[in-house]
């Protein structure tokens, strides 16, 4: 799988995209534009025999507004950093919203996130702002202080998620570490979802770019959990086939200008 936005990309048409892509490719490897990842998920769910009209989407992503990708938004399981924060009660509530029809599925999107600004990681220029801000701000903030606070439960969880000796101040390792912790917490509670329906989980890292550029996604896991099971059946290879195919289609206008308004 390659890290390209689209075969139809015209050099210079989206200023800054090529430098950003080079940074993403160097630090995160294979990825797809956010839109292409969404289309890959739809194709994969259909190929698995699920009815796209009967998908309950649940997301465990950071509350940062940059992460509200349309295809990945639904029942919100996540807290700061994207770490599942709703506990057993929230997972059971989510499960109760799933269709009981045949061919229904719960699709869970579990991701940490990181900003990319040209050659740099950890900041991004957001819509309506003139200065870059940190991204993921919670994960970066957790590197500066590891004292837990009574009234800051989600931030406490972010602090607990990070292996400082491994991460140092490397933003790519920070995103990978928060994701891995999030995925483990998700796996711990996934049985509450798979009690009622098959579950497909896409895990990885959301890559937020400066206003005017498309966001990207670096997949790390793509698994199916059968109804009544909590054992994940990996089909990462299959996702890569879909992402490769979709990477070869042009970026849609709505992707190239998604952050402009
Ligand atoms: Zn964040």
Automatic annotation (TrEMBL):
Domain (Limiting CO2-inducible protein B/C beta carbonyic anhydrase) ranges: 39-225
Source organism of this protein record: Chrysophaeum taylorii
InterPro entries: LCIB/C_CA
Lineage top rank: taxon: Eukaryota
Full protein name: Limiting CO2-inducible protein B/C beta carbonyic anhydrase domain-containing protein
Pfam families with a match to the protein in the record: LCIB_C_CA
């Amino acid at each position: 799988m390659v890290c390209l936005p689209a075969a139809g990309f015209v050099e210079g048409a989206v200023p800054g995209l090529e430098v950003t892509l080079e940074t993403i490719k160097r630090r995160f490897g294979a990825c797809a534009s956010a839109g292409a990842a969404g289309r890959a998920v739809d194709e994969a769910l259909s190929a698995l025999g699920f009815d796209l009209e009967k998908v309950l989407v649940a997301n465990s992503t950071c509350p940062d507004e940059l992460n509200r990708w349309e295809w990945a938004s639904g029942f919100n399981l996540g807290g700061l950093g994207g770490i599942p924060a709703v506990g057993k009660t929230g997972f059971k509530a989510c499960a109760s919203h799933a269709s009981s029809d045949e061919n229904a599925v719960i699709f869970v999107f579990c991701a940490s996130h990181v900003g990319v600004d040209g050659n740099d990681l950890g900041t991004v220029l957001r819509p309506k702002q003139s200065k870059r801000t940190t991204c993921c701000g919670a994960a970066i903030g957790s590197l500066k202080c590891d004292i837990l606070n009574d009234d800051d439960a989600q931030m406490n969880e972010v602090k607990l998620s990070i292996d400082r000796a491994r991460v140092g101040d490397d933003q790519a390792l920070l995103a990978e570490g928060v994701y891995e912790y999030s995925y483990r917490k998700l796996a711990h509670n996934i049985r509450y979802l798979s009690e009622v329906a098959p579950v497909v989980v896409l895990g990885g890292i959301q890559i937020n770019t400066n206003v005017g550029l498309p966001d990207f996604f670096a997949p790390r896991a793509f698994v199916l959990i059968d109804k009544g099971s909590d054992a994940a059946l990996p089909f990462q290879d299959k996702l890569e086939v879909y992402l490769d195919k979709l990477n070869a289609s042009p970026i849609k206008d709505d992707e190239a200008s998604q952050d402009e308004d």
